[in-house]
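Run: sequence + adenosine monophosphate -> complex structure.
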Amino acid sequence: MRIVSSIAEVKDAVAQWRTSGHTVALVPTMGYLHAGHESLMDAARAACGKVVVSVFVNPIQFGPNEDYDSYPRDLDHDAAICETHGVDLIFHPEVQEMYPEGFATYVSADALAETLCGASRPGHFRGVCTVVNKLFNIVQPNMAFFGQKDAQQLAIIKRMVRDLNMNVQVVGCPIVREEDGLAKSSRNTYLSTEERQAALVLSRAVKKGYAAVEAGERNAAKLKQLMSDVLSAEPLARIDYLEVVDGLTMQPIDTINESVLVAMAVYIGNTRLIDNFIFEE
Ligand code: AMP
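>> structure
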């Protein structure tokens, strides 16, 4: 496995693989890898001849008062995990490599990026789309793997690929959870012991919501009430948003029909966590 920091080195490596007839998978990450990321690597490994993992905490997707500086970073730990999962190359660029002096071009996703996390984090998805677009251009992967944990991100990337006619197949992978239900996240490391316990309220709400929809609940307002009752029962939890949206357009819906995304962001103390479920009839 190689670890490279320049765009030129990635392009060289990929060009050589192409000459040998290999297909290439990309797994974009911000590092501090955990089992959620590992599931993406395993899916990538199973699907393509060569696997690239990018590890880059992308400054332009963080708002001014967000956790860019404190976001956990540990390349040695990440490299050990990638090695175990058969990754061929880690791309770990400096910010200057990705955004040199004079950088001026951005990709944004309009309406899809204005709800849910996009409403709470203005500019977030513009940063995500821009960096993913750059990574796609640098690696030119056949396939790219993203987690359903960031469901809106996945929907936006799929739309970007379609709208901009990009030659990459985007694959979504299921949410990986801790044994007690908490969705794996690099940000879980911010939680104190007490907060870690309180954070279980997210997956409890997801479970309750999913069960209600499965049992036939089709009224979005009633579903939200049911789930927000669960969340409000936890004193350390503060709801940022809880929404029922169409799974493709990310726009709020009143009645649950074919494809729905039920998504939430909840502060546990100062840590903002997300969770969701999709329901398809
Ligand atoms: P991040 O490093 O948090 O930007 O995440 C990189 C990729 O891993 C994204 O596609 C995430 O959706 C995915 N991911 C993060 N956490 C999980 C999880 N618990 N289960 C599945 N995928 C995840």
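>> summary
The chain has two domains: 2-173, 186-280. The two ends are 42 Å apart (CA to CA).
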